[in-house]
Amino acid sequence: MLLGLSALSFIVIFGIFILAWRRDRSRKVRLRLFLIGGGLVFPLVLLTIATVYGVALGERITGARTSPSLTVEARAERWHWQFTRQTGRGSVTRPNVLHIPAGRTVEVIVTSSDVIHSFWVPRLAGKIDAIPGMRNRILLRADIPGRYNGVCAEFCGTGHTAMNFSVVAHDADGWAAHDKDVLP
Asked: CA 114, CA 79: separation in Å to the nearest integer?
C-alpha cells in the first residue's frame, strides 16, 4: 500500500515536471490552482491515506486489541533469561526456557535487570528491547507445537553470544501435563 502511494506520488510529481518542461510559454498557468492542488490538496490526501493505513497496520502487528490467553514476564540478566508466569498456586520461574501453549496468543512482558538486551524469537515474532526500568510488551503465537530458538539481538557484553533461549510450544495435552509438573 505504502509503495503504491509512493509510486503514485512519484508519477504525479514527475508528470508535473514533464508538463512544466514542455509547456507552451505563451499559455498562462494558473499558479494558485497549481499551488493549492499540487502543493496542499494532493500531499494532504496522500499523507492522510498513508497515516490511516499505517496506524491500522501498526495496531494489527502489535496486537493492540488482542486479548492474550497467558502472560509471562521475561527478565534479562547477564547473560541469561528468566521466564516467570503466574499460576493458580503462585508464580513459576524457569531459566532460559519459555513454555507456552500452541495455538494461543501469549503476552510477554520484557524487562532487564542490568543493561539493554533484546528479546527475539525469529519464527514467532519480531524483536523488542529489554531495557532496565521499562516493561515492553510483545505477543507470541506458535501455531505448531515444537521448539523455537530465541536470542538476545542486542550486544550486551562479553557473554552476549551465549545468551540464547528456547520457546517450547506444547499441544493441549502437553500443556496440561507441563502445568501439572511445574505446579508445587
From this structure: 10
**DSSP letter string over 45-113?**
HHHHHHHHHHHHHHHHHHTTT---SEEEEEEEETTEEEEEEEETTEEEEEESEEEEETTS-EEEEEEES
Q: According to CATH, what is the number of the domain 70-182? A: 2.60.40.420
- Sequence spans of domains, the chain: 2-62, 70-182
Distances (CA, A) of 87 to 81, 92, 138: 19, 7, 20
Of 165, 79, 154, 80, which is closest to residue 117 (Cα–Cα)? 154
pLDDT (tens, 9 = 90+) of the chain, 184 residues, equals 888 988 988 888 888 778 777 766 666 667 777 778 777 888 899 999 999 998 888 777 667 677 888 999 999 998 899 999 988 778 889 999 999 999 999 999 999 999 999 999 999 988 999 999 999 999 999 999 999 999 999 998 888 988 999 999 999 888 888 776 665 4
Q: What is the DSSP letter of 37?
A: I
